[in-house]
Amino acid sequence: MKAIRVHQFGGPEQLKLEDVPAPSAGPGLVVVSVHAAGVNPFDTYIRTGTYAIKPPLPYTPGADAAGVVASIGEGVMRVKAGDRVYVAGTLSGAYAELALCLESQVHPLPPNVYYQQGAAIGVPYATAYRALFQKAHALPAETVLVHGASGGVGLAAVQLARAHGMTVIGTAGSDQGRTLVKENGAHHVLDHAATGHLDEVKKLTEDRGADVILEMLANKNLAQDLAMVALNGRIVVIGNRGSIEINPRDAMARDASIMGMVVLNASEKERQAIHAALVAALESGVAKPVVKMEVPLAEAARAHQEIMKPGSYGKIVLIP
Fold first, then answer.
1. How far apart are CA 246 and CA 20, in angstroms?
2. Residue 310 scores a pLDDT above 80
3. CA nearest 126: which of 284, 237, 234, 287?
């Protein structure tokens, strides 16, 4: 089968399309025929060799995919050959024609969701769900500020928070991104490149501040977040690209909490809860993954370049 392989850490040029042996489904395992594979920012961090997770070389990147179950191993009960599924994590990597998965990593893909959308669920929607509900314990009638709301995680958070009965404020850096955020349910959309845009959050909340802030670029925004979070507010750091100086008094004055999270740290019980909720959200139409770009598997390097460009929106998927 064809798969992308990385033989040494480095730039996008390290992503090579190669022929590799097809995986087989041992006990408790599932082989999925991949129709689309999701590209996530952390895929690029792992490729550079600077991320906390450093897989043994060579490896096939990718955690998210959607397709059809090709075969199952002994003891697998939740799926059967021919089932439409989305994949949240793999044993062999998702940038390939076939992916080997644990049974617990494979979830039903409702008939109203196409494969490209299915490849946009695993990391983005699980991250958004865990940040909102398992970390921040967001409640209906609260206000959430989603920084970088036009990206894959941001749009997922907007959709889930709106359906949960929250007031949603989203930010984006382009007209196209802001339109997309509004279309996906945000009550208010701000330009995060505009001077003083964060003061608008105070105005929109009658000077209370946001109860929950989902932060995609903490090294730029965290100090300002602390100055505009509500009393007993919760800031969840989802993305960061460097260090920042903050004033802890801002957190003290508001009894505010700053929480970091990585979706890979979720326990098995938390993952089960996340995907039970996401399958239901997909079935009901609450979750509607937005696919920005479809790229042939052989051009994975281009997809890695595109996903790191500023002003990105929606999801990039690879098509084997």
1. 48
2. no
3. 287
Going by their DSSP bridges, the two strands 84-88 and 143-146 should be labelled as unpaired
**SS3 category, 38:** strand
Beta bridge partners of 317: 38, 294
Give the H or E element holding residue 223: helix 218-228
Cβ neighbors of 75 (< 8 A, separation 6 or more) are: 27, 28, 103
Taking only the tens place, the pLDDT of each residue in 232-243 is: 999 999 988 889
For residues 298-305, average pLDDT: 97
- For the stretch 153-192, pLDDT in tens is 999 999 999 999 999 999 998 889 999 999 999 999 999 8
What secondary structure does DSSP assign to 271-296, as a single string? HHHHHHHHHHHHHHTS--PPEEEEEE
Which residue, chain included where needed, has tokens 């507010």?
233
Do 232 and 222 form a contact (C-beta atoms < 8 A)? no
DSSP string for residues in 80-118: -TT-EEEEE--SS-SSBSEEEEEGGGEEE--TTS-HHHH
The kind and range of the H/E element at 197 are helix 197-204
Q: What is the pLDDT of residues 45-75, one digit of tens each?
A: 999 998 878 999 999 999 999 999 999 999 9
Phi/psi for 79 (5° steps) reads -135, 165
Q: How many whole angstroms separate alpha carbon 147 and alpha carbon 239?
A: 10
Rounded distance, CA 318 to CA 310, Å? 20
> Number of helices (H) and strands (E), helices first, in the chain?
10, 15
* Tens digits of residue pLDDT in 68-107: 999 999 999 999 999 999 999 999 999 999 999 999 999 9
HSE value, Cβ hemisphere, 13 Å, CA-based, for 168: 27
Based on its alpha-carbon atoms, the radius of gyration of the chain, rounded to whole angstroms, reads: 20
Element (H, E) at 218: helix 218-228
CA separation for the pair 188, 198 (Å, rounded)? 12
